[in-house]
């Protein structure tokens, strides 16, 4: 299990800054929270043990959701670390534990506990009692908290600034996959990646509101009854696409730009990087995206308002695709190193029409979160973007031919027994 000290974390982010802890105001603190384990969790289902996970909140301002650990009453989480900058001295932490239930509309509630002294934390020897709604003990939870007064650099960050680590969450839908048929696996994936310091690069006063002159956006955000129905449908679909399950979700930590290519963009079976176009939005804390296709449902499921869960504003939005740094003529789909690939990202969203003036902020945000990442930004009207997309189309056709052969080879043989 890896861990960070607050000082080391700051030095790795802003190496030229000397920490002047004594000059920080008394009500500004930075914390690193390590969520460790739980034990004696109750059995919530008649068959098997539980699939626990937890949701942590600081003052109801910022939220952390853990990975799901299957079939255990004594979960031990690894790499569940949360760095938050500039919280008040009076900050409270609440942790709610659930049992994931894929077959039910709602997960089972196990219990909750609260820490009232986050910035001056002393762990109880036996852990925190997890209390049910009736006050019964439903196990114990263990965590550690490092806190330090905010430095001159971090005290100027917005309150409750998320500062890592970056993690990815992939959600697979077979129902949508069968409708879109974007791949041989009939799987449609949506991605969510919490990003550090989004509000620094896209301050709240620069939020990109929905385009009141765009007819499709009017149908969603207007005042007529049809708009209410459209927004309700969006929210229901968003929840379905991003629903976490034990069997069909994956998450992990992204420690470098190489990890982004290896764990996010490479196919989980063939290990190839797939040429395609993604639709994305960036909200207050996360980068969300999914593949865009020509089929109706694929296009609908990738709409920016859907990814934004019907929000009237985003921090930024558009489309992006990946391409080899040396051109498609030198394409090796199995090479997932950062040196071999680059992200081409734009502001092409009719729903939110982000300002092209903020493309430099977009690039800086990605480089801050993934140092060394090769990234190119274009305004959606730039001819160079159209040229890159035309080259991508040819690569997509080549990928279809090669990936079909590879998936056939990777699939186990089907043996038919005669009766």
Indicate the topology:
Layout: H1 6-13, E1 29-39, E2 52-58, E3 62-65, E4 81-87, E5 93-99, E6 108-115, E7 128-131, E8 137-149, E9 161-162, E10 167-173, H2 174-180, E11 188-194, H3 198-201, E12 208-209, H4 215-221, H5 225-241, E13 249-253, H6 257-265, E14 277-282, E15 286-292, H7 296-301, H8 304-307, E16 313-314, E17 316-324, E18 341-346, H9 359-369, E19 375-378, H10 383-410
Helix pairs in contact: 4-5
Task: List key phrases describing it.
single chain, 419 residues, alpha+beta, Immunoglobulin-like, 2 domains, eight-stranded mixed sheet, five-stranded antiparallel sheet, 10 helices, globular, disordered N terminus, C2_dom
Description of the molecule:
- Helix 4 packs across helix 5.
- Strands 13-10-11-15-14-17-18-19 form an 8-stranded mixed beta sheet, with helices on both faces. Strands 7-8-1-4-9 form a 5-stranded antiparallel beta sheet, with no helix packed on it. It has a 4-stranded antiparallel beta sheet with strand order 3-2-5-6, with no helix packed on it.
- It is globular and about 65 Å long.
- The longest helix is centred in the last third of the chain and has 28 residues, at 383-410.
- Strand 7 (128-131) and strand 8 form a beta hairpin.
- The chain has 419 residues and is an alpha+beta fold.
- Helices cover 24% and strands 28% of the residues.
- The protein folds into 2 domains: 6-162, C2 domain (Immunoglobulin-like, Sandwich); 167-408, no CATH class.
- It contains 10 helices and 19 strands.
């Amino acid at each position: 299990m890896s861990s960070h000290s607050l000082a080391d974390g700051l030095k790795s982010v802003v190496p030229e800054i000397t920490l002047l802890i004594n000059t920080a105001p008394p009500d500004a603190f930075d914390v690193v929270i390590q969520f460790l384990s739980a034990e004696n969790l109750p059995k919530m289902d008649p068959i098997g043990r539980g699939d626990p996970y937890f949701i942590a909140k600081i003052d109801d301002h910022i939220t952390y959701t853990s990975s799901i650990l299957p079939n255990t009453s004594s979960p031990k989480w690894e790499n569940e670390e949360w760095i938050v900058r500039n919280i008040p001295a009076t900050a409270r932490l609440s942790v709610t534990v659930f049992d994931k239930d894929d077959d039910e509309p709602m997960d089972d509630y196990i219990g909750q506990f609260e820490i009232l002294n986050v910035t001056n934390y002393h762990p109880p020897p036996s852990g925190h009692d997890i209390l049910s709604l009736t006050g019964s003990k439903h196990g114990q939870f263990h965590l550690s908290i490092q806190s330090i007064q905010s430095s001159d650099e971090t005290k100027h960050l917005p309150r409750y600034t998320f500062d890592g680590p970056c993690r990815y969450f992939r959600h697979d839908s077979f129902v949508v996959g069968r409708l879109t048929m974007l791949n041989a696996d009939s799987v449609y994936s949506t991605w969510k990646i919490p990003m550090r310091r989004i509000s620094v690069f896209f301050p709240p006063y620069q939020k990109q509101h929905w385009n009141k002159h765009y007819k499709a956006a009017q149908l969603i955000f207007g005042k007529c009854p049809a708009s209410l129905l459209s927004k309700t449908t969006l929210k229901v679909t968003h929840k379905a696409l991003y629903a976490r399950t034990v069997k069909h979700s994956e998450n992990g930590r992204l420690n470098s730009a190489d990890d982004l290519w290896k764990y996010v963009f490479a196919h989980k079976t063939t290990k190839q990087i797939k040429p395609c176009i993604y639709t994305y939005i960036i909200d207050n804390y996360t980068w969300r995206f999914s593949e865009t296709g020509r089929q109706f449902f694929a296009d609908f499921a990738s709409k920016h308002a859907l990814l934004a869960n019907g929000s009237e504003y985003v921090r930024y939005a558009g489309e992006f695709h990946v391409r080899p740094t040396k051109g498609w003529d030198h394409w090796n789909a199995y090479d997932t190193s950062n040196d071999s690939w680059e992200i081409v990202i734009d502001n092409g969203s009719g729903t939110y029409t982000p300002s092209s003036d903020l493309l430099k902020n977009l690039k800086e945000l990605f480089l801050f979160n993934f140092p060394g990442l090769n990234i190119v930004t274009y305004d959606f009207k730039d001819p160079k973007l159209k040229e890159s997309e035309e080259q991508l189309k040819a690569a997509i056709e080549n990928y279809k031919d090669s990936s079909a052969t590879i998936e056939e080879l990777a699939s186990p043989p089907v043996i038919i027994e005669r009766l």
